[in-house]
Write a structure and sequence with these properties.
This protein is α/β, with parallel strands linked by helices and 153 residues long. It is built from 6 helices and 8 strands. The protein has helices spanning 34-45, 50-53, 63-72, 89-98, 115-123, 136-152, and strands spanning 3-4, 26-30, 56-60, 77-81, 83-84, 87-88, 106-110, 128-131. Strand 7 (106-110), helix 5 (115-123) and strand 8 form a beta-alpha-beta unit. It is globular, with a radius of gyration of 14 Å.
């Protein structure tokens, strides 16, 4: 089941996911490019790992929407682009790191492969950096490992 948060108006088009006994992970995907959102959704929904495949994906096209989603619902993992229409995704990663609990783990996803930019991303407290374009298996592996480590912590 997928939920989409509205852009700029920041209103839910559907009710935010509510955890239950059979909690399925909620992944916030902060990405402004529609083809990238569609690709990630296709990779996740076809993953061999059930925890990844059954995750609820919440899309946010900008930082403002992502902040509302984080403030209003339970998020288990944030997949975060860096260059967004209303700012730098690394600012959100720092805000998550410095904010009040719960603080979901962050995987930064960027087309930049410069070592300085990767180091800057990881310095925000992000768990991983994934270069775009990415191999689907690499994305699934990182999401799976991160979800497992955050639920066992």
């Amino acid at each position: 089941m997928a939920f989409t948060a509205g852009c700029h108006a920041c209103a839910w088009r559907h009710e935010p996911p509510v955890p239950d006994e059979d909690h399925k992970p909620v992944i916030l995907h902060v990405e402004d490019e529609a083809p990238n959102r569609a690709l990630l959704r296709a990779v996740v929904t076809r993953a061999a790992d059930a925890a990844v495949r059954e995750a609820t994906i919440v899309d946010a096209e900008d930082l403002a929407t992502a902040r509302e989603v984080l403030a209003g619902g339970s998020v288990d993992l944030v997949l975060l682009d860096v260059r967004l229409p209303d700012g730098n995704g690394l600012d959100l990663a720092r805000a998550i790191r410095d904010g009040e609990a719960p603080r979901p783990p962050v995987i930064v996803m960027s087309a930049s492969v410069l070592p300085d930019e990767q180091e800057a991303a990881l310095a925000t407290g992000a768990r991983h950096f994934l270069s775009k374009p990415y191999a689907p298996a690499d994305l699934v592996k990182l999401v799976s490992e991160t979800l497992r480590s955050s639920t066992s912590a």
